[in-house]
Write a structure and sequence with these properties.
The structure is a single chain. With 493 residues, the chain is an alpha+beta fold. It folds into two domains: 213 residues, Serine Threonine Protein Phosphatase 5, Tetratricopeptide repeat, CATH 1.25.40; 137 residues, Heat Shock Protein 90 (2-Layer Sandwich), CATH 3.30.565.10. Helices cover 71% and strands 10% of the residues. It has 17 helices and nine strands. It has a five-stranded mixed beta sheet with strand order 4-6-7-9-8, covered by helices on one side. The protein has a two-stranded antiparallel ribbon with strand order 1-2. Helix 1 packs antiparallel against helix 2, helix 5 packs antiparallel against helix 6 and helix 8 runs parallel beside helix 10. It starts with a helix and ends in a 5-residue tail after the last strand.
Length: 493
């Protein structure tokens, strides 16, 4: 029984702390060792031995099913083993089997089912708090509550695990302290969390130190028969030499056997996994590629429809302006029409190119300036347009406000800068310097245009749009009107 319990503890520890893929190999070896151990039981216990062996085989089969992603069938195997233990009145096996079953739930993150299984054996540990595995039981319940974000209950059970282990197995409390450290970290109690984490580190260091000092003490003990220190005695040296030779030989044979089996199994397993993963990758890549193409098509279609709708709105404004006699109203509709067209131009360019979120600022501002000249029927021999714009990619969210600002500035120059001059020049420049976009719209007209000093709709709109793109507006009245727009450059390409 003691061997079976020690075996079970190893299985629980292994299942919790290593991956499901590698646990299969280790559990298979443990079950093989279990059979070897029980093979030494005398004949008077043969019936119990056969029952234990059958239960072990059922659990082994359940674990194999779990490794083949047949979790439900694996759990049924555990239920079968549990039913057999209850039928035979092997009360000592029931909590062990349920603890094992709870680990399968933990691996699958089925926390509520795992908790239900653990609570079903609560009576064994409440009636006998000193029962073997009480520390593991309380720890598993605590960690399950932790995963379910029920912190108070998690703390209660982890501290019960700590109390048990302080008496019976203090070396295992590093796991308990790690759980408590995580809980208090989530609760924002950093100091308490650090204290438990430090306890875990110290406990691990103490265990290693005790083991090392024990070995040193044994090696340096005085051998009365030979009158020398134990580590230097001929008996000790001969014994260690023979033991080492025997261990090396046995270890060699065992390692060769195990490695051969493991390598063959792993190679087969990896081959199957690789083929399956390759198929999954190819399939997923095809789905991703198809979805991406559909997304790009839909985005282009959206830009196309938005552009058409904006052009319809522009045409309606144009038709409405023709029916008006009030010049002020006509000007207002014409300005609104130019604003709509400045946005429509963005969607038109995006529809025509492959990139659906970034646009070349040079191409856009060139087209916008020419469009405004055509809208106001300007004579290109009278008023010239000069463009000095760097090739800069800018995203749509910044381009729409920036385009509306430039539209207002160019419109201001067209309408007011050359009222008493036969010729003039409007210059639009844009430079990218030190990750700042510096855009300038200037003219050599009369200066003192409304954009510099009035509080009209255009000015208010420029101020609002500038705030949206974190831009700074600088206005000058020196040999004409000059407006600088300085904004951070966000490259999202």
């Amino acid at each position: 029984m003691e061997y079976f319990i020690r075996l079970r503890k190893s299985i629980i520890f292994t299942t919790k702390f290593i991956s499901l893929r590698h646990t299969k190999i280790i559990l298979t070896l443990f079950i093989f060792l279990c059979h070897l151990v029980f093979g030494n039981i005398n004949n008077s216990q043969s019936n119990k031995f056969q029952d234990y062996k059958l239960i072990s085989e059922i659990i082994s089969n359940g674990i194999d099913l779990a490794f083949d992603d047949k979790i439900e069938e694996g759990l049924l195997a555990f239920d079968k083993a549990l039913a057999l233990a209850k039928l035979k009145n092997y009360e000592e096996l029931i909590p062990i089997i349920v603890l094992s079953k709870s680990r399968l739930f933990a691996i699958e993150d089925r926390n509520e089912e795992g908790l239900q299984a653990l609570l079903s054996i609560k009576k064994y540990f409440e009636t006998d708090p000193q029962r073997p595995y009480a520390g593991d039981y309380f720890e598993y319940v605590g960690h399950t509550y932790l995963k379910m974000d029920q912190m108070e209950r998690a703390i209660y059970f982890l501290k019960k695990s700590e109390q048990y282990r302080l008496i019976h197995e203090p070396g295992k409390n590093w796991r308990t302290y790690n759980g408590l450290a995580e809980i208090y970290d989530r609760l924002g109690q950093d100091q308490v969390s650090r204290e438990y984490l430090e306890k875990s580190k110290k406990l691990s260091k103490i265990q290693n130190t005790k083991k090392m000092l024990g070995e040193i003490k044994n090696d340096l003990a005085f051998n009365e028969r030979e009158g020398t220190i134990a580590i230097l005695s001929s008996e000790n040296i001969a014994t260690k030499s023979a033991l080492n030779r025997s261990r090396k030989q046995n270890t060699f044979y065992l390692i060769v056997t195990i490695l051969s089996s493991i390598i063959a199994g792993l190679l087969y397993f990896l081959l199957i996994q690789r083929n399956r993963l390759n198929k999954e990758i190819v399939s997923k890549n095809e789905v991703i590629s198809k979805n991406l193409e559909e997304k790009e098509y839909l985005v282009k279609e959206i830009h196309h429809r938005v552009k058409n709708n904006l052009q319809v709105i522009s045409s309606l404004l144009s038709l409405q302006s023709r029916t008006l006699e009030d010049q002020y109203a006509k000007d207002a509709l014409q300005e609104s029409q130019s604003r709509v067209l400045s946005i429509s131009l963005i969607h038109q360019n995006l529809y025509k190119q492959d990139e659906t979120s970034m646009l070349d600022l040079k191409v856009y501002l060139s087209n916008l300036s020419q469009q405004l000249f055509n809208t106001y029927n300007l004579d290109h021999d009278r008023i010239k347009l000069k463009l000095e714009i760097d090739e800069v990619q800018i995203d749509v969210t910044h381009l729409v406000p920036l385009g509306l600002i430039v539209n207002e500035l160019i419109t201001n120059s067209i309408k007011y800068a050359f009222t008493d001059r036969p010729h003039g020049t409007i210059k639009v420049s844009c430079k990218l310097i030190d990750n700042l976009l510096r855009l300038n719209v200037e003219d050599d007209g009369i200066g003192n245009t409304p954009i510099l000093h009035t509080d009209g709709f255009g000015n208010r709109m420029i101020d609002v749009l500038a705030k949206r793109i974190d831009a700074k507006i600088i206005k000058n009245n020196n040999n004409g009107t000059s407006v600088d727009i300085i904004m951070p450059y966000y490259n999202k390409s």
